[in-house]
Amino acid sequence: MGVIASAPAKVILFGEHFVVYGEPAIVLAIDKRAYAKAELRDDKRLYLRSVNLNLAGYFENGIFNVEQGNAKEAKLKFEPLKLAVEKVLEIHGENVGLNIEVNSTVPVAAGLGSSAAVAAAVTAAVGALLNVKMSKEDVFRISFEAERSVHGTPSGVDPAVSTFGGTLLFQMDTGFKPLDIKADVPLVIGDTGVERSTRVQVAKVRGVRDKYPRVVEPMIRTAREIVLRAIDALKENDLETLGDLMNINHALLCGLGVSDESLEWLINAARKAGALGAKLTGAGGGGCMIALAENERLEQVLEAIQRAGGRAFIAKKTDEGVRVEQT
Q1: Catalytic residue list contains 158
Q2: pLDDT in tens, 64-82
Q3: 191 φ, ψ to 5°?
């Protein structure tokens, strides 16, 4: 018998890039989820399959053998999951063979936290299968370690949102704290389909800041003010103010050079179609944008983004983090 667990993806609502300089960011779990199914095997192999990436292979005695897809890509995607499984097995106290099947509805490499959602879902599924008592903090810690094996020094915000769900305020020095937000936050997410490197975009911002510190420092302070105002707007369900703040936040990111043509097409299309606000989300230079719209305008905005060449879907805030779907 298998166990299925799932975890949500995320969008950064405000504060990306500025978070690197100690400012706060608002992150939201959305109702797109990654699913992981875990089953026991008779041997000691760890067999992994990703349905959406068409990759499969197994680890045996520390050696990876590919069965489907590109060997290098498969190993890269499966290594962090292997690490998460090993951490759960350590708590379990016994090494067992497992089949793990991952199926994610979250676009990959688009800044929506897909790898963290998968890691949290795998951790929870294996834990439930082996009857390992794990708190959400345990799931977070293990997913974070898995992320660290891929990204070097991630902020920890992706695994936090995937594990705990809801809306989080994140700051480098204080970590994350949940925000009690009742507002719906109806969004359209548009994926440019342009893959980008977070590292390259972060370096680009650092270059601009080093060259023009007296110009960029006030922009960083403005970004903080936007986040603080946005918290109030969220608590008051004031979508209009939220939209305005998204537009201002995007203008700052544009000024730092992290938007590009693929994003601008989609953002302009969304605003013309009646979105209250639209901005890039995540690292920029491709990846995804988000548009805030009243419920009755969502379809209109969605279609406008699609016509402008984006892959778009409607997303809502979810308060549910990682969960076991069935045992």
Answers
A1: yes
A2: 999 999 999 999 999 999 9
A3: -100, 120
- Residue 175 pLDDT greater than 90, yes or no: no
Residue 136 has pLDDT above 70, yes or no: yes
The residue annotated as part of the active site, out of 31, 42, 138, 158, is: 158
Please give the C-alpha separations between residue 67 and each of 37, 101, 288, in angstroms, as whole numbers.
18, 14, 31
Residue with tokens 């892959």: 311
**Cα 204 to chain center, whole Å?**
21
- Secondary structure of residue 74 in the 3-state scheme: helix
* Residue 247 contacts residue 281 (beta carbons within 8 Å): no
Which DSSP symbol is given to 151? H
Q: Which amino acid is at 232?
A: D
Nearest to 96 by CA among 38, 58, 40: 40
Mean pLDDT of the chain: 93
Q: At what angle do helices 157-164 and 114-129 cross, to 10 degrees?
A: 50
CA nearest to 256, candidates 211, 286, 287, 226: 211
Query: Would you state the structure tokens that stand for residue 25, as one six-digit string?
Result: 């960011």
Provide the whole-model pTM: 0.89
Cα 35 from Cα 230, distance rounded (Å):
31
Helix, strand, coil % over all residues of the chain, rounded to 5: 45, 25, 30
Segment 185-235, tens digit of pLDDT: 999 999 999 987 778 888 899 999 999 999 999 999 999 999 999 999 999
| In contact, 109 and 192? CB cutoff 8 Å | no
- Residue 174, classified by CB atoms within 10 Å of its CB into exposed (0-12), middle (13-18) or buried (19+), is exposed
Q: Which domains does the chain have, with CATH numbers?
A: 3-180 (3.30.230.10), 187-315 (3.30.70.890)
pLDDT of residue 139: 96
pLDDT tens for 255-265 read: 999 999 999 99
What is the Cβ-side half-sphere exposure of residue 138, based on CA atoms within 13 angstroms? 17
